[in-house]
Amino acid sequence: MSVATFTDLTTAGAGGILLLVPDTGAASALTEDQRESIMILEDHLLTSEIQIPVYFSEETEETRELLETLANTNSANDKQASGAQGTT
């Protein structure tokens, strides 16, 4: 996640942010650009006053499944809301 994306999320009204940290095997496969992006975000987190909670978790199969479920639920809710708007 870039600092710009992080800032967009915090100013758009996110109630909290979950950052998934790659496990040791995945971390070793990161590109130099990805590592640099993580280091820049880390610096931003350490030097900025952030008004919402920021959580960290190791990326696992379970967290990937949870994110997929949440994304699917959000997508379904968006479709229901747009359908409801079209009927009024």
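the 2nd protein, sequnce then structure:
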Amino acid sequence: MKNWKRILAAALASAAVLSLSGCKDTTKDATVFVKGELDCTYLGTYDKEYLDVVADMTEADAKEKYDYNVEAEASIMLGYLDINTTDETVVERAEKLVSDIYSHAKYTVANAEKLKSGDLAVEVTVSPIELLPLLTDEFVQDTWYNILAQNGVETQDQLDALSDDAYDALEVEYANIVLGELEGLMSQLSYGEDQIIMLQMKKDDDGYYSLVESGMQKLDEVMIDYSGSYTAD
């Protein structure tokens, strides 16, 4: 998996101005905030209660947050599958697949607790989505080698001699077959062993709370299990 891409994506998402305003009932608002963040990020849904506790958040901002995360996850997935093309139809297909996968996101958010430091902690239980592990290495390798053979590419020298456009055409063909296989496997989607992630919210000098990036990065890594790390025995 391209971990550096995933970390970057989470960091950029966290960089948005999504701070929880300090108030009397901070623990309740923190719970609303975290659940709203997850619903917005993975399900593309949001409600007035969530928008009200986030500083300067609009419906347009919430939609943009979801769209951004889908695009970032699609880039991660294409990288993991070793699909190296910028073909618009492939990218759009990958984004549609990610949106479909995200629609199965399953998590529970516990009530927030206030720590002695004044920070807030929210426990989130995530059920990792198990889809990518269903795609076998054998299928992926056979797909690529079959495409090469069908196009008369039998040696490394022949592969190296291909023009950029010719190679990209093979990439697009490979991408569509692999993405199509994943689409067909959606009916077999399952969940791995539940993972508990503790999210921390730190208070700044102006009385606003914001999520610590490392917790969200971990949660994002767990949401879709690329390598079968959380598959139940």
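The chain has a mean pLDDT of 87. Residues 80 and 231 are 18 Å apart (CA to CA).
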